[in-house]
Structures are given as C-alpha cells and as structure tokens.
Design a protein that fits this description.
420 residues, Molybdenum Cofactor Biosythetic Enzyme, Chain A, Molybdopterin biosynthesis moeA protein, domain 3, seven-stranded mixed sheet, elongated, 29 strands, Molybdopterin biosynthesis moea protein, domain 2, alpha/beta, single chain, six-stranded mixed sheet
Length: 420
C-alpha cells in the first residue's frame, strides 16, 4: 500500500503580521496544516490494540446473533397461558448456551432454559428460576411478568452491518472484544507512527556519565518524551544528544528524517545566539517561530526537515512537557491517522488564590485534594521539575485576566485526559 505524501515545507507558516499566537489559534493552525503520514496495513484483531483504524469497521453479524435467555429459568410463550398463578407442563429436554433446543415448544407449555441459550421456537418470555417451583413434569409461577422478560433480542447490542468504529479510531482492549463478537477477525490500520527524540545543547549530559559540573545539567527531557511517546502507542526513536555543533545537528536531523515520521527536539529552539537548532532549520527556509501566548512554554519552533515535521520544544522540562501535551499530542495523533483529540477538562472548585494578568493562557501543575478541589504546586517556576511529579493534572486558566479565590470554578485537566 502506498505511503502518504510528505508535508509541505510551508505548512507551519502563520499569516503575515501574527506576532503573539493565542493557544487556540496555534491549535487550529496545526489541525488544518497537518495530515496523515503513515501507510496502511491489515492485521489480526487480536494484535490490534493501540493501532489506529484506517478504514471503518462494520459488524459482520449481530450481537447477540439470535434472541436468547438472560437468566436461568423456564421459557414459554407469554400469550399462551393465562394471568395469575399458573402450573405449566414442562416438555422434555432443555435449552443451554451452545446446545439449542430446535423443536418448537407447544403453546401452554414451558421448557427449562439456561443463561445464554437461544430461545427455542414458541418461546418469547423467561421466568426467573428463583420465582418458580418445579418438579420433573411441571413448573409453577405467578404469570405477572411482561412479554419478553428476561430475554435478549437479536442485535439488541449491535445490528449486523452497523458501522462500529470510524476510520481514525484508536483501538483499546475492550474494542477487541466487541470486534471479535461481531465476527471481525482482521482490521485495516495505520502503521505505528515513528517519532524521533533529540536533545541538544552543550550544557546537557547523559545520566550515568559521572558527576555533572555546575554548568551542566542532566538530560531530563529525553526519557520523559520517549516514555510519553511509548505511552501514546507510537514507536519512539532515540536520537540521543548532540551538542551545539551544526554538523552534528544536521547529521542527527538527517538520521531522524530517515528513521521517523516526526521529530521532537528540546533546547535550542529560540532565536538566541546559541540556539543552533533554530539557526540550522532557518537555513532550510522552513522554520517558523511561534511565540505562543502560553505559560509555561512560549517559544515553539516548527519546521519540515526532508519532508518530516520537526517540533522544536523548549529546553526546560516543565515547558517541554506542557508544550508536548498541548500541541504535540494532538498533532502526532493527526500524523498517525487518528482524530484530532483535545483533552477533556472538568470544572472543579479552586483550592488556591491567583491573580492572573491578561494576554497568556496558563497551565498550573495541580491535583485534587480530598474535597475534590484543585490545589496547585506552591511554585510556578518552570525550573521546578518536581512539580510535574507532584501534580496529577493541570489547571487551565484562560487568556483573559482573572482573579481566582478558593471555591471559584476552574478547569482541571487530569493527566488521564492526556492518556498518561
């Protein structure tokens, strides 16, 4: 099956005159600019968890395929016996799951039936075993139940031919149960998106390489980003770390474009003298610096390198994670062939005080206290990496100025809404 076409070099270009970019504008532009870059393949349903569907799935049979009993009891035709107390003769045999009773049940008679058994001809109602008394030849019960009681109609869950999942749906384990029940054994899916991760900067050293000097920091972003990608079902490609060496950066980006469908870099994405990633991408003519009206995060560099999109994330781990969750996550989902997916947030009471200035959207590291109110990390400093671990989600404060007092409603986005 053919590969999807590469992205245009100018796909990230903002309209002329745009300086500070609101978060919603940036998200809309990404959604409109990006498209699927992964090819299609056919795999068994049993192996499809985590894959994104490339075609609609339609039920090959109904679920349940035939009317059946929802309980252990006795089946009969409701209208064939009178109301009130009844003693109904039993026919020989029984109906069980996987062992249908194919002969009709005469009017005015009943049959022993077990959960999951197909209703024999002549049966439309089942009385629960606990509501009866029986011997070998008859069953006694109060005929006060409605017609069709304790039965499941054919297709009451899913009708045959119904579209079950659209293209772009990411399959999870419960989906596999449904697909299998509907007679579907193979699905058309997108190849897993390959995303490369590259850390940059002379100040970065890898963990395990000895004690870092005071002017050095350990590479915290790369393990975080690689783990996020694996959690989202992508194939993470580790490009390791390169210093501020243009030749080494070029070689790493070339390798990333050969091995991956998208590249995440961290560090060197601003416009300063030592921001070599930006300088190198600028020389290709495809770099776009987006000054996002966002805290934390602000600088976001986007480019296309050899047909592969590059997301230049801030070097600070807190800002890198927030930008990844807010911008890279839905973008990668589109590239992978999925639906544009924004995280669900919930209105909860604030357990903090905050005076927010206008102009930037803010994401505060937060978690819910025992009263289900959102408390925030004591420091908003983006250098406080411990706040990412302390938090269980983010509080999103809109672009406008606001005063938040304890008890005021705020939007809380749990980490689970980001598939973490």
């Amino acid at each position: 099956m053919p590969e999807a076409p590469p992205l245009r070099d100018d796909c990230f270009a903002m309209p002329q005159g745009v300086d500070w970019t609101p978060v919603d504008t940036a998200l809309t532009h990404l959604r409109d600019a990006l498209g699927v870059v992964t090819s299609e393949k056919v795999i068994p349903v049993a192996d499809s968890a985590g894959y994104i569907l490339s075609r609609e799935c339609h039920a090959l049979r109904s679920n349940p395929p035939a009317a059946n009993s929802a309980v252990d009891g006795f089946g009969f035709a409701k209208d064939s016996i009178g109301p009130g107390p009844q003693v109904v003769p039993l026919i020989a045999g029984r109906a069980a799951a996987g062992q249908p009773h194919e002969s009709p049940v005469p009017a005015g008679h009943a049959i022993r039936i077990l959960t999951g058994a197909i209703l024999p001809p002549g049966v439309d109602t089942v009385v629960l075993e606990e509501d009866t008394r029986s011997d070998s030849g008859s069953v006694a019960f109060q005929n006060v139940i409605r017609r069709g009681a304790n039965t499941r109609r054919a297709g009451e869950d899913v009708e045959g031919g119904t579209m079950v999942f659209p293209a772009g749906h990411r399959l999870i384990p419960p989906d596999l149960a449904l697909l299998t029940a509907l007679g579907i054994s193979e699905v058309h899916v997108r190849r897993r998106l390959r995303v490369a991760v590259l850390s940059t900067g002379d100040e970065i050293v890898a963990p395990g390489t000895g004690n870092a000097a005071p002017h050095q920091i350990y590479d915290a972003n790369r393990p975080m980003l690689l783990s996020l990608l694996e959690r989202w079902g992508y194939h993470a490609v580790d490009l390791a770390h390169v210093g501020d060496d243009p030749a080494a950066l070029r070689a790493a980006l070339d390798q990333g474009a050969d091995r991956a469908d998208a590249i995440l870099t961290s560090g060197g994405a601003s416009a300063g003298d030592e921001d070599h990633v930006s300088a190198l991408l600028s020389r290709t003519g495809s770099l776009q610096h987006w000054r996002i009206a966002l805290k934390p995060g602000r600088p976001l560099a986007l480019a296309v390198w050899n047909g592969v999109p590059v997301f230049g994330l801030p070097g600070n781990p807190v800002a890198a994670m927030v930008c990844t969750l807010i911008f890279a996550r839905p973008s990668l989902r589109l590239l992978a062939g999925g639906e544009w997916d924004m995280p669900r947030g919930y209105q909860v009471p604030a357990a903090f005080t905050k005076s927010k200035k206008p102009g930037r959207r803010e994401y505060l590291r937060a978690r819910l206290n025992p009263a289900c109110a959102a408390e925030v990390f004591p420091s908003e400093g983006s250098g406080r990496i411990s706040g990412l671990s302390w938090a269980e989600g983010l509080v999103e404060l809109g672009d406008a100025a606001m005063e938040v007092a304890p008890g005021d409603p705020v939007r809380y986005i749990p980490y689970g809404s980001f598939d973490l």
